[in-house]
Design goal:
Blueprint lengths: L3 E4 L3 H14 L2 E7 L6 H5 L2 E6 L10 H11 L3 E3 L9 H9 L3 E2 L4 H8 L1 H10 L15 H11 L3 E5 L9 E3 L5 H16 L4 E5 L5 E10 L4 E13 L2 E7 L6 H18 L2 E11 L2 E8 L6 H8 L3 H9 L16 E8 L11 E2 L2 E3 L6 E5 L6 E2 L6 E9 L2 H14 L1 E3 L5 H7 L3 H5 L6 H7 L6
Parallel strand pairs: 1-2, 1-4, 2-3, 4-5
Antiparallel strand pairs: 6-7, 6-8, 9-10, 9-12, 10-11, 11-14, 12-13, 14-19, 15-18, 16-20, 17-19
Helix pairs in contact: 4-5
């Protein structure tokens, strides 16, 4: 096991990793920008190192500064959390070159799954169902027009190196292709330094289903069920739950077994999430995230498995001790991402929290690094924390969620709590009858008033 782990992140995920380290008896190092010197994970870690000014490129993305922090503190491993450098294969390689362990997959798997075209090819080779689309990157507009005609409109153009909705455009007619391709290339180049695009069939009203996997890099891998992440805004997840209201046990077992078998074949190491669009009873692979997910607590609540703890154990070259038939699912869990933003316009709302009261009680979990008097800086993601609730049934879970949302108090900044209070009362949500475009249609109707 590791002696000391440097946590190369901030906010609630840094605190989440710190807690797992403490339970394992591992010393911790918090790194922080000057804007985060009063952060909770900095206060609770065994050691802390300032790695630069507020901009992420000068601090949390500053690889030389992180290496220096490892050397200064004697950290023998780095946990990247999510975002920032968590899916940077070169960062993992550089750490290895300096005899520091990267708590995550091998660089070749990060690199493979970070290239959306290569990932799709690998998925097809491994027997994972994929969305109909181009076999590789598209070149000219003429080639794109021909491919789109073969696939059938509407189609979606995506950035091969992309994520978070950047470089993604829906194209409904051939006449719309040139302008959409030009805009997608510009976004991809600006966001990722790579303007390679590919085409896929656009599915009108699918669910977004993701399968959680766990592997030890030695040919043993299991799945931990699915999460339904269909409630999204601009391709950003807002509400996640598990199990999915749209799946039955045979469908769940079939796709889970397919994914786990693929992870065993490539000898995947650590945690990962294989994401699908689910439409008319069929799964279509879209991408794999080779890191811990924001929504991992949903799986923890329905399996009683600590994913971060397992991630650390596996990175330290321990065998996977969990067997597939030992994974027992119980009840239902829902996670709401609480952001410091206006609930209608989604405009970020940094500032000082003057009152903070998280909900509690049976089946209620709040993953957050904020506290009374904490000042949310304007430099980073607006996530304040995550409210996760669990119940024996989905109905009980929803009732508990409404109660917890009513208890939650955050004053001094705007939050999206009013959005979740409204969603928890909506008939479609109560019935589990929603898709990836539902939330934007709901907001477009003006259902949530300022």
């Amino acid at each position: 096991m590791f002696d000391k782990i440097l946590i190369a992140n901030r906010g609630e995920i840094a605190l989440r990793v710190l807690r797992a380290c403490k339970e394992l008896g591992i010393a911790t190092v918090a790194v922080h920008s000057t804007a985060d010197e009063d952060a909770m994970h900095v206060r609770l870690a065994d050691e802390s190192v300032c790695i630069g000014p507020p901009p992420a490129k000068d601090s949390y993305l500053n690889i030389p500064a992180l290496l220096a922090a490892c050397e200064i503190t004697g950290a023998d491993a780095v946990h990247p959390g999510y975002g920032f450098l968590s899916e940077n294969a070169r960062f993992a390689e550089i750490l290895a070159e300096h005899n520091v362990h990267f708590i995550g997959p091998r660089p070749e798997h990060i690199r493979l799954m970070g290239d959306k075209i290569a990932a799709k090819r690998a998925a097809a080779r491994l027997g994972i169902p994929t969305v109909p689309g181009s076999a590789g990157g598209i070149g000219s507009d003429e080639e794109a027009r021909r491919l789109a005609g073969d696939i059938g409109f509407p189609v979606m153009v995506k950035a091969a190196a992309g994520g978070g909705g950047r470089g993604m455009k829906v194209i409904r007619t051939a006449a719309d292709l040139p302008s959409a391709l030009a805009a997608a290339r510009a976004e991809a180049k600006a966001g990722f330094g790579d303007d390679t695009l590919y085409l896929e069939k656009y599915l009108e009203r699918p669910r977004h289903i993701e399968i959680q996997v766990l592997g030890d890099g030695k040919g043993r891998a299991i799945h931990l069920g699915e999460r339904d992440c269909s409630l999204q805004r601009r391709h950003q997840k807002v509400w996640e739950e598990g199990p999915s209201p749209a799946l039955n046990a045979p469908a769940r077992d079939a796709i889970g077994d397919t994914v786990a078998r693929a992870m065993r074949e490539i000898k995947y190491l650590g945690v990962g999430t294989v994401e699908f669009l689910y439409d008319d009873g069929a799964f279509h692979f879209i991408e794999m995230n080779t890191r811990i997910q924001v929504e991992h607590p949903v799986t923890e609540m329905i399996t009683d498995i600590d994913l971060v703890l397992e991630q650390i154990r596996l990175a330290a070259d321990n065998d996977l001790q969990l067997a597939q038939d030992g994974v027992k699912f119980h009840g239902h869990a829902i996670e709401c991402r609480i952001n410091a933003e206006n609930a209608v316009s989604f405009r970020p709302s940094p500032g000082k929290i003057i009152h903070y009261h998280p909900p509690g009680g049976l089946g209620v979990r709040v993953d957050s690094a904020v506290y009374h008097g904490y000042a949310i800086p304007p430099f980073y993601d607006s996530l304040v924390g995550k409210l996760i609730v669990h119940g024996k049934t989905r109905g009980e879970c929803l009732m508990r969620l409404r109660r917890a949302l009513d208890e939650f108090v955050i004053d001094g900044v705007e939050t999206n709590l009013p959005l979740f209070r409204a969603l928890a009362q909506e008939k479609d949500i109560i019935d589990g009858d929603y898709h990836i475009h539902w939330l934007e249609e709901f907001l477009g109707r003006g259902a949530l008033q300022p």
